[in-house]
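=== RUN LOG ===
request id: a7f3
mode: sequence -> structure
chains: 1
length: 340
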Amino acid sequence: MMRANRKIHKAKNIIVSVALIIILIVLMILFSEYSSTLPLRIIISVSIIEYILFRILSCKVDIKLKSDKPYIVREEKVSVSVVINKRSIYPYKKVEFNLKYKSKYGQGERSKRIVLELNDNRIESKKVVTESLPCGYTAFTIENAYIYDILGFGSLSINNISENVNVMVMPTPKPIDIELPKMPFVSGDESEIFHEDRGRDSSETFEIREFHDGDSMNKIHWKLSSKTDELMIRDSIAAIETNIYVYFDLSKRINIDEGLEKSISIAYEMRNLGYAFYIMWFDKDAWTLRRSLVSEYEHIENAVSEVMKYDMYEVDENVEKILERFMNENHEVYNMFILS
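=== RESULT ===
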């Protein structure tokens, strides 16, 4: 397939080159009377005609970004794919653009000028690798994109550019020792402390299994059943109760990468020890604490990805009061309450 594309690309280049040679011969015949400026006039004329062909044959070009992975860990270099849809038989030489990216928890916006050589695929995907980025979400966008003619002199602006693409950089869990002498007991009404989405019980869990005789038809998971060609049901299991909290600190008083790394390390070690627990964080927009139950390893990644959607904040007396209220109303949890 690649060889066939190269042959087509080579054939197009030959056709364009032959057309330019024919034009050159015609111009030499027209300007048969030699003068010292004849070569210059011919070169200029050929360049102008080639650029006119470039403008006529060029259709609407699309360019968009695509994330290669749903998330990466902090030590990895981030890569995104640039997808170019040329919609034309013209053999373009290259595409050039500014790749801008800004991390939610980083400082300032960064930019790289990218030049990608093109082949003859109608739709091409090129991978662009950047340096390692801080934890959290990083938004990538393309600006000032241009596509160039076969000679690399003429260019057209690409106006049809897709929206931003977000890449999530997860903190890397590391080995950590935790000692939990006993299971804690919580006193106080937590419903007044935590913001819970209405109609959603964060402690209620479900299992997916095959349909058995006697199961209620109301429990059938129709969407999953259509994919597996077997009747599957979504069955609730015993609610999980836990009074252990792992706090993810998003305040500006700490190094966010180190804080997230320590918190996720604690979370994984808690699962290694067999505990269910809550991941907790502060929502500065709603001025409330939020939490997400973790009873399986995959819950950690889901919870941390949710945590990192929230903004960092300055710690003031109001924030301290909310955290202090939690500690006071749950005083028996104090020694068990794990802070990053």
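=== NOTES ===
Residues 182-189, 198-205, 331-340 have pLDDT under 50 and may be disordered.
The first helix runs from residue 2 to 30.
=== END ===
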